[in-house]
Amino acid sequence: MLVFLGGSGLVCLLLAQFWGFWQHRQWLQRLGWMAVAFFAILNLLAFIFAYSLTHFTPPGTFGIGLPRPVNSRLPSDFGLEYTTRRIRVNDREWLESWFIPASNTDSSKGTILLFPGQGGSKGKQLLAPAQVLHGLGYDALLVDFRGVGGSSGSTSTIGVLEAKDVALAVDYARELQQQLQRRSPIVLYGVSMGSAAILRAVSRENVTPDAIVLELPFSRLLDAVRVRLADRGIPTFPAAELIVFWGGIQQGFNGFAHNPIADARQVRVPTLVLHGEDDRWMSLAQIDELLAVFPGEKQLTIFPDAGHQLLVTVDRDLWGQSIDRFLNAVGEKF
Question: What residues contact residue 77 under an 8 Å CB cut-off, 6+ apart?
């Protein structure tokens, strides 16, 4: 009897242990499936967010992506004469540009190529700078990247493939100078993403301008995504890494290697950096980090009380004086 009771107790104990283990295992399985579901949802959200940052939807249509930037204003709205010129990329793609001759067409001091930032177009971001450059005596070629304005396409790569657009535009500008029988400096000016495209073009596309002007540059794509997520109160890890990863997969490039600071190390032409003191996307410490790696001549102009906005609209006099002083020095060496 005692043996029976002891054996029964042992069996009950073993069954209880087995049941507890089974319950524990089921709990672990549920926890595992919850982790898998959470990771899948996080990746899906990152995929959609990356897609929306790199794709544009035409005006009046519904879809995932930013509204396609259009050219709502023309040079003539600023009292500037211009011609529209199409730069061929291939049989299906092109870049639309506006050529605005210098105020004194017989004695142009140089050709300035202007490139917009992410979500911008030549009509939205480049006309105010071009007006100042026109008055200073320079020809201006305002270029829409692929995907925006009058150019073909509907996507953006935050400066990666746009570097090839910069290279094509520089080749076109050199041909244009030959047609106009002008021998003068070629200078590249870019706003935010446009500045990243310029640095990448010089570093990786063998573009050789006589000088560059970088307005509101950013240091690394991953850092740029992180600071924008933080501004929205979204935890940056691993969201930023997933967004950069999926954006690169969608567009066919390694987003983690998109590093304007690394590209800046290859730039040996005179460089002017224009930045807003209160820019929330790029701190002054990061600007100093970027400026420090340029091996050639470099200048920095900080605009007090300016954020991440077109700086010529904040302080036109300071912008014009900085550009004029810099370009005059470039022209003296040409």
Answer: 127
